Amino acid sequence: VMNVCLSTEHPYNHLIETLNDGRIKYFNPQKLNDQRYDKLPLSIRVLLEAAVRNCDGFYTKEEDVQNLLDWQQQQCKTEVPFTPARVLLQDFTGIPAMVDLAAMRDAVAKHGVDPSLVNPKCPTDLIVDHSLQIDYSKCAIQNTPNPGGGDGPSQNQGPSRSAPSRPLPRGGSHCGGQRGTCSKAAACSDPLASPGQPPASVQQIENTPLLCPFHLKPVSETETTLKNQGMELIRNKERLQFFKWCSKAFKNVNVVPPDVGAVHQVNLEYLSRVVQVRGGFIYPDSVVGTDSHTTMINGLGILGWGVGGIESEAVMLGQPVSLTLPQVVGCKLVGSINPLTTSIDIVLGITKHLRQAGIAGKFVEFFGPGVSQLSAPDRTTIANMCPEYNATVSFFPVDQVTIKHFKKTNFTQEKLELLESYMRAVKLFRCFDDPSEDPQYSEVIEINLSSIVPYVSGPKRPQDRVAVCSMKEDFQSCLDEKVGFKGFHISKEKQETRVPFLHCGREYQLAHGSVVIAAVISCTNNCNPAVMLTAGLMAKKAVEAGLVVKPYIRTSLAPGSGMVTHYLSTSGVLPYFSQLGFEVIGYGCATCIGNTAPLPEAVVDAIKQGDLVACGVLSGNRHFEGRLCDCVRANYLASPPLVVAYAIAGTVGINFEKEPLGVTSEGKEVYLRDIWPSREEVQQTEEDMVISSIFKDVRGRMDKGNTFWNNIDCPESILFPWDHKSTYIRSPCFFSKLSKEVPPPQSIENAHALLFLGDKVTTDHISPAGSIARVSAAAKYLQSKRLTPREFNSYGARRGNDAVMTRGTFASIKLQNRFIGKSGPKTLHIPSGQTLDVFEAAERYQRDGIHLIILAGKDYGSGNSRDWVAKGPYLLGVRAVIAESFEKLHKNQLVGMGIMPLEFLPGQNADSLELNGKERFTITLPESLSPRQQLNVNTSQGKSFIVTALFDTEMDIILFQHGGLLRYVARTFL
Ligand SMILES: *[C@@H]1O[C@H](CO)[C@@H](O)[C@H](O)[C@H]1NC(C)=O
Ligand SMILES: *[C@@H]1O[C@H](CO)[C@@H](O)[C@H](O)[C@H]1NC(C)=O
Ligand SMILES: *[C@@H]1O[C@H](CO)[C@@H](O)[C@H](O)[C@H]1NC(C)=O
């Protein structure tokens, strides 16, 4: 199960200790008796523990353990291996990985070896969520599988992936009972259906998970979901059957069925363990995943980050991730959080600091007394923001807050105690108040939490931010200033105007700054449960203190999803919202796009009469002048609790510090600070009411599976019964002619250049994702299988079919091949002089037994990671790539497929060597290779030049000699 050799030969046997009366073992790196351990950042201690435990003298060596211990000196200088506790795959990246494994079983069986021995080495969770296309949603949002994207966790693609399983805002249907008018309210329309509105909500949806890591799945098995599942089943039947077979046939594979949740959600809410207990050992949880939100998990003290599909497959096969020993920036949180600050203010404030700090490519680790003020959801939200400041991870070591969070899951008390005593024993548990525990970081950034103050923005543009404490003065200056983004130019004498009016039989007054619209909306920025609960708990305290909201103010509550209503209701705050006039008006983006019911006529008349600058306050994330209502000239965006506060105050011209929010009927002054709920209260309510129901919810869905998944029939065999008619799942030919012995190094003789490329060839050129062009080699293949272009689907969806993916290799219309004058997926078949699709040329060369290489310029293989960037060229018959330089990740991918990455000597390239690409190339390999060995290349034109073989380690050489990782792993079974 683990890469632990349990014989006495494990080099770190002497570090093994036990817990629970000897029943559970663990490696205690403290027994290395090295005082450097106590000064290591905790994230480095996690890497160290994994290196100790997985030390096999092959992938991970004692030297690596020493380098990790010597992190202070070795950071940035050495590469270290990291074997994560688990791999997280989603369906698109899972298919090729699992197909390879299934093919490996066949290959091993051909040699008479028991195929059931072939299983992932690293525990693998595969979450089926991406293939769900919304066929039946009435919303305009369509999700195409992985639109044009790679399989890597690039930040820009991540959100769109998980869009379909997230709450879709729907227009509310019931709009009765609204305040503001004495008569009945106007009908709400579905904002998504409003003509002329840009699909603003797409953006909102895509942003949502960034600030809202934990959320409930809003839909149960409604008719729509059932229909979608039906469609999904038909469309993806072969792939779902294959996944189901994987879940039964392989050990170490856990398949999460469709419709349980998006990858990051399931990871956060279901798979996270803090510690893993396997094979009698306990060790820290850690993960690499092909999901852009993988870094979220660091908020729970679980080290993890995103990798590409091919990298995740390698980890699954037992190869560690190789990383340059990172610098670790200690982010010290000090000071206390300002009372009016919400979780989102804190998250955005910390993110802003980190963005300015320039910490790209480093680890961030939080410490200092301020950390314990952040709840687990706050931490995961911050950790999820890593791509904003390009850190690899933002790690929050485990502490009491983490433990408290896991109490809300199904962790038993016994398990929690085990977890805590283990984490303490290996010094992975932090008490943030004790500075003597603080590690030594590469550098320290200090953030004083009291420097983070709440802002509102407006009055006309969302980018004009105003600190809440200076709101009164700012509004005053807006009245004074000449008309502009921050000015209304109201003459001095008119600034004092008061206009009395009658509303429902009582007299009120309006002035400049009077609030007439107040809308609490839970969308994007404010979907965070803590923020909505702050508003709700404040509403409760306001009502209890005897405060009211003036009845002419149009107040509304748009919770964003039924689940927000659910937790507002279970936490008991909904009635108080309602008493203040904030009634649930529906789930769509109502107010911010102008769908408010009209203001009372008397209010409109009073505004007009006094030429007043009346105000709207809302917690949406966008607004435009006059958008709420023509007669409301000043519009502010504020957090939900501040919306409630300004509604109670009835004006934006208030200094909350100095002036009371209101006066009770008994004449008592109540200040905002009197009713603002404490962070502890909010966090407690969040953990009790939201987090626990989220866990219950996801677990319920998981247990239930769903009717369709359970009814998928699936073969009960050890070998996968490949369906030769399938165009999605095909046994790839990576294992053809697999011999038991490692073949001797194979020289390249008289090879032709398949392609003659320039600089900056990206993975997009090498293995384009997206749609399959009708004139491509892949299209010809699919047509030969009697598919119509409508049924082609994308390259992304066909990653389980090597025939399609090989044909798709270099099929980019942007490919610039020097053999061909213009860009396109073509090349010259040199012997015949014909211009062919790259695949067709390669096929012809292969048929004629001609070796192939590729010539390229600088930065070969940059860009997103793609599964097929190395597999594709391998199946085209490419044996070596000679380039001026390689993107490191891609170089590793080539080695992993047994293709030689060869670098010209510095200063040399195809032009300086006067190569025309049409010569034939011979590269003779010595009996034994050594790292970064120089090799001679001879051309048929009599030229000779030297290249460096970019095998950096012995491991690289071994992989190359075996013909790549897959063949290497397969041979270990022989
Ligand atoms: C944080 O800032 C506040 C207000 O500026 C100050 O009073 C406090 O001393 C600071 N705390 C630390 C630890 O620097
Ligand atoms: C993060 O990386 C991207 C791409 O490499 C770069 O464009 C951006 O400026 C970087 N941002 C920061 C804050 O370093
Ligand atoms: C979670 O805990 C509840 C209550 O203790 C129990 O009924 C349920 O079976 C547990 N579920 C799992 C998956 O352990």
UniProtKB/TrEMBL annotation:
Residues 71-135, 184-650 form the Aconitase/3-isopropylmalate dehydratase large subunit alpha/beta/alpha domain. Residues 140-178 are annotated as: Disordered. GO terms for cellular component: cytoplasm. It comes from the Eukaryota. GO terms for biological process: negative regulation of translation. Its cofactor is [4Fe-4S] cluster. PROSITE patterns: ACONITASE_1, ACONITASE_2. RNA-binding protein that binds to iron-responsive elements (IRES), which are stem-loop structures found in the 5'-UTR of ferritin, and delta aminolevulinic acid synthase mRNAs, and in the 3'-UTR of transferrin receptor mRNA. Binding to the IRE element in ferritin results in the repression of its mRNA translation. Binding of the protein to the transferrin receptor mRNA inhibits the degradation of this otherwise rapidly degraded mRNA. This is Iron-responsive element-binding protein 2. It comes from Echeneis naucrates (Live sharksucker). The lineage of its organism: Eukaryota, Metazoa, Chordata, Craniata, Vertebrata. The gene is ireb2.
